[in-house]
């Protein structure tokens, strides 16, 4: 048997071993546990270890170079993915040049139905699945009060509540998410993570199946950011199917 240790590579010790006329290449972390083993043939000639040793060392350095290249490639790829993983905010114009809300554009962004009401834009997002059935057998999904509603109002031009002083796209928003009980915690995580204020959690019906709860909230900020955050909340549910 022939065994020789080669210089560490990326925290691993490359250990060529010849045993029973075969070449074994071990990549061993400094902790000592083998993580990889590559087998190859290396016939011994006249019981001399010179040729096998030469073959082993040459093979080890070649394999070590490949091993290093794979690790480097994975590392560079991870860095590239991390660099490209940036959060983007929708740039759709949701407030028209005259300062009024484009209610239909907002509804389109949210996947809902726009209902303008004076300066306020109501958007109803109808649950697609599952069907909520009342104790009378009615499909409750068709009723507005059993669905999610979000209301938008443009803040006045002199509003000073924004941190950067720019109130161009600044809105006040009230919302009511209609949620299955199994969706409540995940949506609550999105809402609180965006620093919205939860103003109430209650029921609208009794004896419906499956059971639903309603989360009321309010928020102020850039309209595009809030629309994107609301869609993040919807993504935690089956509301849109």
Question: Briefly, what is this?
Answer:
With 241 residues, the chain is α+β, with helices and mostly antiparallel strands.
Overview of the structural elements:
This protein is α+β, with helices and mostly antiparallel strands. The chain folds into 2 domains: 83 residues, no CATH class; 132 residues, Alpha-Beta Plaits (2-Layer Sandwich), CATH 3.30.70. It contains 4 helices and 11 strands; from the N terminus they run E-E-E-E-E-H-H-E-E-E-E-H-E-E-H. The strands form 2 sheets. A 6-stranded antiparallel sheet has the order 6-7-8-9-11-10. Strands 1, 2, 3, 4 and 5 form a 5-stranded antiparallel sheet that branches. Strand 6 and strand 7 form a beta hairpin.
SSE order and pairing:
Layout: E1 2-3, E2 6-9, E3 12-19, E4 22-29, E5 36-41, H1 50-84, H2 103-110, E6 113-117, E7 120-125, E8 148-154, E9 170-180, H3 184-193, E10 197-202, E11 212-222, H4 223-234
Antiparallel strand pairs: 1-3, 2-3, 3-4, 4-5, 6-7, 7-8, 8-9, 9-11, 10-11
Helix pairs in contact: 3-4
Brief descriptors of the model:
11 strands; alpha+beta; Alpha-Beta Plaits; 241 residues; 2 domains; single chain; disordered N terminus
Number of domains: 2
Instruction: List the total number of helices.
Output: 4
Uncertain stretches of 5 or more adjacent residues? 1-7, 33-87
As a percent range, the share of strand residues is 25-35%
What is the number of beta strands?
11
The structure class reads: alpha+beta
């Amino acid at each position: 048997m022939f065994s020789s240790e080669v210089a560490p590579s990326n925290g691993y010790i490359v250990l060529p071993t010849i045993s029973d006329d075969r070449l074994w290449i071990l990549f061993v972390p400094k902790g000592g546990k083998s993580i990889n083993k590559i087998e190859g043939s290396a016939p011994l000639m006249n019981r001399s270890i010179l040729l096998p040793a030469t073959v082993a060392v040459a093979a080890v350095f070649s394999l070590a170079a490949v091993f290093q290249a794979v690790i480097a490639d994975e590392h560079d790829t991870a860095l590239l993915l991390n660099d490209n993983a940036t959060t983007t905010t929708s740039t759709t114009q949701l407030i028209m040049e005259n300062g009024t809300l484009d209610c239909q554009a907002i509804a389109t962004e949210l996947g809902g139905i726009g209902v303008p009401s004076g300066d306020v834009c109501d958007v109803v997002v109808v649950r697609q699945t599952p069907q909520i059935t009342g104790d009378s057998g009615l499909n409750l999904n068709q009723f507005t009060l059993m669905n999610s509603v979000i209301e938008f109002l443009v803040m006045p031009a002199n509003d000073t509540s924004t941190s950067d002083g720019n109130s161009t796209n600044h809105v006040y928003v009230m919302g009511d998410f209609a949620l299955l009980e199994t969706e409540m915690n995940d949506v609550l995580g999105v809402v609180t993570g965006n620093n919205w204020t939860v103003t109430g959690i209650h029921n609208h019906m009794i004896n419906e199946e499956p059971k639903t709860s309603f989360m009321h909230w309010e928020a102020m900020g850039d309209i595009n950011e809030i629309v994107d955050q609301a869609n993040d909340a919807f993504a935690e549910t089956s509301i849109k199917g």
